[in-house]
Design a protein that fits this description.
Length: 298
Amino acid sequence: MALVTDRDLSPGELRVLVAVERERGFSAAARELGLTQSAVSHAMRGIERKLGVVLFERGRGGARPTPAGERAVAHARRVLRLLDVLAREARGAETGAVSGPLRIAAFRSAALHLLPPALRLLAARHGEIEPRVRVVRDIGAGTPGEVAAGRADIAIATIGDRSPVPDGMVGGTLLREPYAMVSPAGHPDPRALPLVDWAENCSSYTRDWWDTQDWLPAPTVETEDDGGVLTLVRNGDGMAIMPALSLRDLPEGVQVTDLGPSRPSRAIGHVTTPELAASQAVRALIRALRDTTGPLSG
């Protein structure tokens, strides 16, 4: 049996595929890879011939991936990352050293409040790991989409019954955080204020609760992120319903009111691929997250 067939893609071909998608053109990809444009074009024709599909639409605007190309690039990134992990872990097998880049996708409040203590603990335990954090809005594909696309090794995401770990991935819950009402400190009737919201808030985790609250008006102001919400609340321009992670390090002039035993909550967890879940760096970060999120649970 042949170990390599004429339909197998080489690591070099995978790098060409990823570079063309990232640079949106053959010339720019060639410059990045240190190749000629003709070499990149030849390699891409060979890749498409092996796969039997068109991966990029060529035009004056450059090269844009087709749906098949987007999927192929995502797999290519993930394969290249696994090859890097393979090499690093093989070299560190005898010494137990864990090193190299660790790409993390996190939504804003997790990046601000959940990750820093975990990364400090990770650095103390494994100083040769190089965390690279990418802040991604928790809407649409969100942070798990970065893992699926091969741009991140692990995602910090909101997960639960209505937003489960995506198919083909694995994950676990780190903490569950309650929602509370925030309003200007000392306001006599905060429920009478306009409701301020942001796109990442009020997901399916809280939607049922929101729909049953007769006193809760429709949002009249939507900001870019939870920081903008707190600024408006502090200035007396509204009140908001926010999760606990967004309420750490509150600005002066803002008060928090518990919503009672029926208050909504959301689960925050980690998501990765089955292959990377076994890697030393990902496992080390998950341990650090679990060791530092206990005090944050509500």
